[in-house]
Amino acid sequence: MTKTIKRAVVIGATGMVGRILIQQLNEIESCEQIIAIVRREDQQLKNLSKVKQWVMDDFLLLNDQDVAGFSHAFSCLGTTIKKAGSKANFYAIDFEINAHFADLFEGTETHYVLISAQGAEAGSLFFYNQVKGELEQHLLQSDLSCISILRPSLLIGERDEARPLEDLSQTVFKGLSHLLPKRFKFKPVTAKQVAHTMVEVAQTQTEKLRIYDNLEIQQNRA
Hints:
It is built from 8 helices and 9 strands. By secondary structure, it is of the alpha/beta class. It has a 7-stranded parallel sheet, sandwiched between helices. Strands 7-8 form a two-stranded parallel sheet. Helix 6 (164-176) links the parallel strand 7 and strand 8. It is globular.
């Protein structure tokens, strides 16, 4: 059953996809309020009329009452092992915080939308994909009423922090893009495409669970 976006809550709100997602939500007429959970107040978000920022040092302190009454919850939260400083810190952010956030909506009617990653698999040889896969498994075993999982490939867009390898990959793929077939499962997608897909599926998905692969995200011409 589809549901109009009326009140939305977002973690990962100041990331590359999160900022665009909130801007798009702010433009939806039916959306009355957007809560951005952030560690530091963000000046760009202050300029959006429907956005209220909740500043928290520790997202694990969020409780059921904090997130009651939202029609939709969006997680754009993610980092890299290099930025996190260790595998343990990466796991704490990408799995533990995301899992806690999802758990808060168990037994409610909130539609939960998550950015995962292409190749997410708990049994993967790559730690990054293992963690993404574990998080997906956690969601599948939860009591969430509606789940959308997006699995984008390399994301193209402007980040606040430097990621040299990703920047290099973006440059290479942009240079070769004209040589790639229109439908290529590893083809990078833009942050705007991912954000727009999140908004679209939040309003149109009828299944209890659906996973959107990179090819489906590519089809979004945002």
